[in-house]
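Q: I'm building a small set of examples for a reading group on sequence design. Run inverse folding on the following structure and report the sequence directly after it, with nothing in between.
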């Protein structure tokens, strides 16, 4: 399941990077593909909608700098939102040394 999701997202990302300009039509097409990828991976539809809405909102509101390509910026936004969706920053594993497993 994760391999298929990974492969499909890689295809979407490759497609994103090929666009010289990111506009609302491009983003809508890309978000449709991402939505399908996530739904096929059994992600809850409410979560998928929230995720795609956040990515689209950030992508349309982001100002592109001359030093970065629009596709690269979209990939960064997508990555940041995926990390946030999956739980955000890494949390250290705290193990209670007093715990005894028998």
């Amino acid at each position: 399941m994760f391999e298929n999701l990974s492969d499909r997202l890689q295809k979407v990302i490759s497609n994103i990077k090929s666009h010289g300009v990111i506009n609302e039509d491009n983003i809508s097409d890309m978000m449709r593909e991402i939505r399908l990828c996530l739904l096929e991976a059994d992600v809850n539809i409410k979560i998928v909608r929230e995720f795609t809405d956040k990515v689209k909102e950030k992508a349309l509101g982001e100002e592109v700098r001359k030093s970065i390509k629009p596709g690269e910026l979209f990939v960064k936004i997508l990555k940041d939102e995926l990390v946030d969706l999956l739980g955000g920053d890494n949390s250290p594993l705290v193990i209670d040394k007093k715990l005894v497993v028998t």
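The radius of gyration is 17 Å.
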